[in-house]
Specification:
The chain is of the alpha+beta class. 55% of the residues lie in helices and 21% in strands.
Length: 78
């Protein structure tokens, strides 16, 4: 059975948005945020700005979150 996805709403750049990501990615994002002393919304805002700096249409915010978590996990050598 595939991991469950849950829709979450948060405020980034002073606007409300929703993302749907699998629980393991959301949990890992929370761990990253805690390790950096930031909120999940702050991390997602950074991901969104980075995505905006390139081609916003190429990757959804949910996909960008997954890619960010994967990149961070690979950097830690897991």
């Amino acid at each position: 059975m595939p991991p469950s996805r849950k829709k979450r709403s948060l405020t980034i750049a002073r606007h409300r948005t929703s993302v749907t990501v699998e629980e393991p990615f959301w949990d890992a994002l929370g761990e990253i945020a805690r390790a950096e002393g930031k909120s999940v919304a702050a991390i997602v805002g950074e991901i969104d700005r980075r995505r905006s700096a390139t081609d916003r249409e190429a990757v959804s915010l949910s996909a960008a979150i997954r890619l960010y978590v994967l990149e961070r996990t690979k950097r830690r050598g897991l």
